[in-house]
Write a structure and sequence with these properties.
By secondary structure, the chain is mainly α. Helix content is about 75%, strand content about 0%. Helix 5 runs antiparallel to helix 6, helix 6 runs antiparallel to helix 7 and helix 9 packs antiparallel against helix 10. It is globular.
């Protein structure tokens, strides 16, 4: 029985979201446009981090337009704008729209900054996350390894960006059932993040979630439960109760209880995850379909077949649109 979406969901493979490179000199008109781009960037970042993807979309598109008109098609600001727009498409399950934008951002950064720059590693990570979400693991792995090596060389072994690379590679191995390879990567990522960012940072929650998933997949439920619970508590405190990342943690904890036939504990978590995803992501997002399927399977297990079939049908209609 499949409960959890195994592509990049909000707590699985980490994307590095924003890169700004400042310090250029322009004329007064260009400076005004640069200030406008930065304002749009900041507005986008605020909306994206709150999970308000539909509201962020026109802001990201306007940011790209301003960057291209002001700085030219191969400027770092344009790469950042492509990256941000791609993040939105990916977050909404529109992978075919996201891929060429990530590729364009990567090409601009490699040309402008060189192949061993941390911002290039950023793009490699993001493109790999897209491939993993599609199940294209063979395409994702070399990008993740290159990103990790680049960040370790440029930033040192204990930098949070290195933890992101470790996390991403661990998640890829976990998705392929290579658990012995995944566990030390997730543990090292968690240790780096706790030391560098503090115990209540969202990235720490992500590492806790990923390590819990690894244990759950191997049937080690008693190890997984406290990690899921701590991850949920951090996300609720830092991001607020209506964020898509909170829905991911609710779903994952529900799946854990479901696997142990603790249906009365799983059901309210599934329902809340569904409501949160619908509100934050819209009714036709892949995460909504997954929430519907999880709740439907629970209904089927508890002999509520009419309710289950309705949810299964709705989930199928959503997936047919993807």
């Amino acid at each position: 029985m499949k409960h959890r979406k195994r592509g990049l969901s909000v707590g699985t493979l980490k994307t590095i979201t924003f890169v700004m490179v400042l310090g250029f000199s322009f004329g007064s008109v260009a400076l005004a446009q640069e200030a406008r781009w930065k304002a749009l960037y900041n507005q986008f970042m605020e909306l994206y981090q709150k999970g308000k993807y539909r509201e962020a979309m026109p802001v990201a598109k306007e940011g790209l337009k301003v960057a291209e008109q002001t700085f030219g098609s191969n400027h770092i600001y344009v790469a950042t704008s492509f990256n941000n727009l791609a993040l939105l498409y990916k977050a909404q399950g529109q992978y075919t729209k996201a891929e060429p934008l990530y590729q364009r951002a990567l090409a601009i950064r490699e040309k402008a900054l060189g192949s061993d720059h941390p911002h290039v590693a950023n793009s490699l990570n993001n493109l790999a996350a897209l491939y993993k979400a599609r199940g294209q693991y063979a395409q994702a792995e070399p990008l993740l390894k290159r990103a990790l090596a680049t960040n370790e060389k440029a930033l040192g072994p204990d930098h949070p960006n290195v933890a992101t690379g470790l996390n991403n590679l661990g998640a890829l191995y976990r998705a392929q059932g290579q658990y012995a390879k995944a566990e030390p990567l997730h543990k090292r990522a968690l240790a780096i993040r706790e030391k560098a960012l503090g115990p209540n940072h969202p990235d720490v929650a992500q590492s806790l979630n990923n390590l819990a998933e690894l244990y759950q997949t191997q049937g080690q439920y008693t190890k997984a439960e406290p990690l899921y619970q701590r991850a949920l508590a951090i996300k609720e405190k830092v991001l607020g109760p209506d964020h898509p990342a909170v829905a991911t943690s609710l779903n994952n904890l529900g799946v854990l209880y479901h696997a142990q036939r603790k249906y009365s504990q799983a059901e309210p978590l599934y329902k809340r995850a569904l409501a949160t995803n619908e509100k934050a992501l819209g009714p036709d997002h892949p995460n909504v379909a997954q929430s519907l399927s999880n709740l439907a399977e629970l209904y089927a297990k508890t002999d509520r077949h009419d309710e289950a079939n309705k949810l299964f049908d709705r989930a199928a209609r959503i997936r047919a649109k993807q």
